[in-house]
Amino acid sequence: MPHPRFGSDEIARRGGRLYQQLIQSGVATEANLGRILSIDIETGEYELGDDPLVTSRRLQARHAGAAIWTERVGYDAVYALSGTSTRTPS
Questions:
Q1: In this structure, how many other beta carbons lie within 10 angstroms of the beta carbon of residue 36?
Q2: Which of 2, 23, 25, 88 has the greatest count of CB atoms below 10 A from its CB?
Q3: Euclidean distance between CA atoms 30 and 34, whole angstroms
Q4: Given CA atoms 54, 31, 37, 47 in this order, what sign does their dihedral have?
């Protein structure tokens, strides 16, 4: 379902920028490799966990209607078709 205030390209742009500039250095550890990170693109708040539904719902509980971007720590995609995903350079 589309977000009422932001298009998918804007959510991806803002979420990617927040992750790279403010969040990645604090969460990109071996212990978190492969975990899910959901980011509220308006507040910069995030949740780290193992399930994207759980992390998104935690953010939605704090900010109803939040525009959320999700990343897999250390990988280029949350899910991969054909069962393989690529690690991003550290």
A1: 20
A2: 23
A3: 9
A4: positive
How do strand 68-72 and strand 46-49 relate by DSSP bridges? unpaired
Q: What is the DSSP annotation of the chain?
A: ---SS--HHHHHHHHHHHIIIIIHHHH-SGGGTT-EEEEETTT--EEEES-HHHHHHHHHHHSTT--EEEEETTBS-SS-GGG---BPP-
For 33-53, the pLDDT digits (tens) are 999 999 999 999 999 999 999
How far, in Å, CA of 43 to CA of 85, rounded? Answer: 29
Provide the pLDDT for residue 76: 73
Percent of the chain exceeding pLDDT 90 equals 74
The label of the residue with tokens 């932001």 reads 6
Which pLDDT score, from 0 to 100, does residue 80 have? 58
